[in-house]
Amino acid sequence: MSGTVMAGCLCGEIRFSVADLPLMQVLCHCTDCQIISGAAYYCAYLVPLDTVSLQQGEPARYDVVADSGRRNSRRFCSSCGSRLWAELDSGVASVNGRCLDDLDHFQPSHNHLIGSAQSWCQINRDLEEI
Prior knowledge:
The chain is mainly β. Helices cover about 5% and strands about 40% of the residues. The chain is built from 1 helix and 11 strands. It has one helix at about 30-35; strands at about 5-10, 15-20, 25-30, 40-50, 55, 60-65, 70-75, 85-90, 90-95, 110, 130. The strands form 2 sheets. It has an 8-stranded mixed β-sheet. Strands 1-2-5 form a 3-stranded antiparallel β-sheet, with no helix packed on it. It is globular and about 40 Å long. The mean pLDDT is about 90.
């Protein structure tokens, strides 16, 4: 039986819960994720969109179209700017694994688009590539 984990933004204005059993936990190395995360990769905690339950606040929205043509509707805190999750056309939410209250709950299982990784990025080759 599945439960939930809590998450939120840096300033605490937005609080939400998501499934504690994700579909996948991905380190995404695409250029878009590098820019939006400000890091070598983005920690994507993938859950069914219908498991995202807003508890407090109202996140802002910014829609983009990925190189793949997929629509990506980003949710973020308009006060502190924290990226919270992205809603994908497939009915999946890509939750920022670093906004989970228990940071150790994010345990990456896959790499994505390592061909876009920076040359200085150390890639965990033990993770499955998607």
